[in-house]
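Box 3.1. Reading complex inputs
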Amino acid sequence: MKLKKGIPVIDQGDKLGFWGGKFGGNFVPETLKKPIEDLEIQFNKLKNDKNFVNVRDKYFKNWIGTPTRFIKLNNLTKHVGGAQIWSKVVSDANGGAHKIYNATVHCLLAKRSGKKVIIGDTGAGYAGKMLSMAAKKFGLKCKIFMGAKDIKRQQPNVKAMKKNGADVIPVYSGSQTLVDAVSECMRYWVANCDTTAMCVGSTVGPAIFVRICGWSTSQISRELKIQLINEFGEIPKKLKLYNCVGGGSSSFGFWNEFMDYDKKQVEFIGVEAGGPAKSKRHAAPLTYGSKIGILHGAAQYVNQDSDGQIEETESISAGLDYPGISPLHCFLKDTKRARYTAASDEEALKAYQIVTKYENLRPSLEPSHAFSVAIKEAKKLSKNTIVVINSCGDAYKDRGILEKKLGKKYVKSN
Amino acid sequence: MLNPISLAFKKAKNEKRPALLTYTVAGDSSKKQSLEILKAISNYADILEVGVPHNTPVADGGQIQTSAYRSIKNGIKMNDIFKIVSDFKKSKNSKPVIFMGYYNMIFQYGENNFLKNCKKSGVNGLIVVDLPWPENKIFSKKCKKNSINFIQLLSPTTSNKRLKSISKDSHDMIYYISMLSTTGGKLKVSPKKILSNYNKIKKISPKKNCVIGFGITEKTISNFKNTDGLVVGSQICKEITRSLSNRQNPVINVSKMVSKLRKKIS
């Protein structure tokens, strides 16, 4: 298995949509073949259409607000004592997380194809919140599928979705989290694909959704590349990009533009959710060697039993609480372009405390996982190593959990 | 010699009626009971679809999901499902059996191993919901080699060009999904429209037995008397759920329902 240079990773799949011959594909019911093919034709055409790209960029700039900041975390760097620690503050984006890029692109595509309704899944509630924002902006009706457990633990985002006029549909099946929300959303699309567009909230699902999402979030690395050159005059000789990985949309977008660099120069580190320290129900299929299976239309490493039933996961962060992982990351793992590891719930919480103690930055529980590993590793790295963490979400949505775990006082003072 | 599935269609045709296909989930609500249900309904049904429960089904509605979760919760494993089929096949009224499920279960079992066990236990056909054409080309050939019918699905969104290619690659039986819906949805398209699509398929491949599924219930089934076969699934699963919550015997209730269904198309 080999990564090709000079060709965007999203376009490195084969005719049937498999990366490396075995990840991804289209394991979908017959009914969805046609709408998926329509979307493929539309996307393949528009991504090379200057006009469309200009429209996208206009919304990214004026509505989402690009570029998001690239800042040095001076106090944290001093505290850790090792590599220089920087952060790409993607949570600056309108709505507070990277999910806005994919949501905006899907709404633009839906508008062009004359669809009136757009549906989407959500875990932490960001994908749903952003889709509801974009749908409102573009005059589309919006339905969001969300696990009942996630609705309880991510109330601020639920409120935001409702305020934007979206229907939030609770999903009670299975573990009542993201995995079930995606299933239910796909089922709804099966029944309504003639009138309705579907947005998959991450780089998961049938191949076309993986590609559209990766194409959209790559805005993050396009900005970072320019910001790095502005700051250092070149791409640093030792650059390490840390990102949390749930479905894998923010990390893929954070890395995409650096794909062709040697990994000795630009290393990618993906941090999965290890779950509670003593739990075996992690959400880290890459770190803990899960087998390849099929989930939500795509072949990927996924937590499952020997029969192929998908296993429930457990993580403090709803956005990472997913048993599978993007086919793109499976591909990056097996080609050894990226390195994957996991942080536990406790480690993420501790990292959140450290970051908020030293910096005026409040990463949500998802990027706190990445901060945890970055802080640990930065200690051992030289001063001329540039460590960048994608702070892809804001902790506002986690207030309830943080209050419960760390106490009211702590949350208030930060 | 005709394979058992084609033979079942032929028998029904001789009686001038569509074949009746039922769908129940293996292990719902227990291994023993699901076997009893199969035995009881095979007095009236011609072909039995046995659902292989999966916990992330992308095409099943509430009724079948409920049945599948019930079965998985009771600890059903793939080997139990093969055992249910082989036990059923030993009974005197046994009928052809078609597995219906999702590809990951086959993939984890290993395609070859899975087919070997299908043959051993007496499974006659396979419907793999999320392995569409052309992705299923290699696997469907393997099935044919093992004398197992790979049943291709067609839907209202299938283009004419696709329809022709899929029919060409299909075995003796084709499954037409009546409408855009998950299983168990209300029939939202007129029977006339469904039949016109059905006739279009029959025109392209007159020799294949084409069944219609999704939205077929006691209420709607008599609209489709002039077809090769009809599948009823969600209504049966719902009847099991209803029986359980009323503390009645699902075997008796489901058997009654299938007998009624049969009368409506005879």
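In summary: The longest helix of chain A spans residues 30-46.
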